[in-house]
């Protein structure tokens, strides 16, 4: 990455580093998690011991994952010859950190970055879903759905729904130019991965999996599902 997206990603990583330093002094994220434990949705299953630490660690990795997946998306788009079509998507994802919407400005430190990370991850989830619906395959081999559900419940339905609405508008802005999914390089990219899957990308694509002890029980799923 040798363009503005690289510089913005450096700024995002720097803001995460500053928030981590602030957290070591204030423990505001840890305190917030602790205050939310009793009100978590019944579907979220945490280990019996160390719940605050587990959930705080998950949220920190959830935040860290954003610049990683943006960087991977830029590299993927450039190598596939579709960067010009995905640049708007990359810009939107980065803008959530670089110039966050006013509705997330009431928090500070890592606590604020949860909201910004949620916006970026929900954006990719919605874009993946839209392209899956139109093309039969997602844009990237990244499924944050279960993680996003956990974060949605953690920050509360009312506020999360406001963030979801902001994401909805962003998705509409991205897809207002339907040439994105009608150009030849993009269709070549879709055909390639429909035929060959994602094996060539999975070892390069950032994953949030880790060794999480958080489980999510969803209706219509016979077994509790670990989220990644």
Structure description:
- It is a single chain.
- The protein has 228 residues and is an all-alpha fold.
- It contains 9 helices and 3 strands, in the order ααβαααααααββ.
- Strands 1-2-3 form a 3-stranded antiparallel sheet, with no helix packed on it.
- β2 and β3 form a beta hairpin.
- α2 packs across α3.
- The radius of gyration is 18 Å and the shape is globular.
- Residues 219-228 have low confidence and may be disordered.
Distance between the termini: 26 Å
Report the order of strands and helices: HHEHHHHHHHEE
State the helical fraction: 55-70%
Largest sheet: 3 strands, antiparallel
What global shape is seen? globular
Rounded mean pLDDT score: 85
Q: How much strand?
A: under 5%
Strand line-up of the largest beta sheet? 1-2-3
Structural class: mainly alpha
| Low-pLDDT stretches | 219-228
Number of domains: 1
DSSP, total strands: 3
Question: Which radius of gyration do the C-alpha atoms yield?
Answer: 18 Å
Q: Helix count?
A: 9
Brief digest:
The chain has 228 residues and is mainly alpha-helical.
Secondary structure layout:
Elements: H1 4-26, H2 28-36, E1 44-45, H3 51-79, H4 83-98, H5 109-135, H6 145-155, H7 157-175, H8 184-196, H9 199-202, E2 215-216, E3 225-226
Antiparallel strand pairs: 1-2, 2-3
Helix pairs in contact: 1-3, 1-4, 2-3, 3-4, 3-5, 4-5, 5-6, 5-7, 6-7
Which features would summarize this protein structure in a list?
228 residues, mainly alpha, three-stranded antiparallel sheet, 9 helices, 3% strand, disordered C terminus
